Amino acid sequence: MTVGTKIEFENLADYILRDYLGSEYESYKPFDVIAFAKDYLKLEISYCEFNPEDNIEGKRTGNQIYLDQRLSEPTRVGERNFTIAHECGHDLINWQEPNYVPDQTINYRIRSQHKELKTENDFREWQANVVASCLLLRPPLVGWALFTFVTLNQHSAGQSCLDISIFPPVEIDSSSYHTDLYRFNKIFHSAP
After folding, report:
1. Do 161 and 119 belong to one domain?
2. pTM (2 decimals)?
3. Domain for residue 1, yes or no?
4. Domain that holds residue 146
5. Contact at 8 Å (CB) between 188 and 146?
């Protein structure tokens, strides 16, 4: 198992994003995780039916990502993109291991509540979640979203619907995406 800190996994995702996106890295365009999986990582994506009782949303083995059929619904695009990014995260992390054999490695994404990090598998899932979050929410995109939604709310309501004072003063380009993710979640979950 690859052992690393949260910042090391964030840096891995950032390095890969910069390589894949090139000059587009600084743009505000959302990340096309499907194109990334197919074009950059050479992973194929298909749907299958997992047993609903197992709560499996995605599985990766070799160069194949299998998504639960329910994720093909248009209303589940966020879950689908995160699951694909999560499986890409496993792939990127696994390639850091010297003895990695793609066809022998199987990773699953299981829908669950917050878990304690007790087992090696818990840590693998946490690592893939960190990389997935960083792939989908790179600093320029988070910064744009914060600016846009705060500005729109100020103009449409005559004042800000968001209490910006709840955000700690951290730069968007910080080395840790955790604060950016926290801010982004607050925007979409705060009541007007």
Report:
1. no
2. 0.70
3. no
4. 141-189
5. no
Tokens at 3, concatenated: 């052992």
**69/125 same-domain check:** yes
The answer to the question of residue 103 being in a domain is yes
By mean pLDDT, which of 6-10, 48-52, 74-78, 100-104 is the weakest?
A: 100-104
- Is residue 153 located within the same domain as residue 114? no
Tokens standing for residue 77: 């695009």
Contact 88, 135 (CB under 8 A): yes
Angle (deg, nearest 10), helices 178-189 and 139-157: 30
**pLDDT, tens digit (0-9, with 9 covering 90-100), for 88-109:** 998 888 777 767 656 655 655 5
Q: Are residues 150 and 121 in the same domain?
A: no
Q: Which CATH number belongs to the domain containing residue 21 in this structure?
A: 1.10.10
Same domain as 23, residue 108: yes
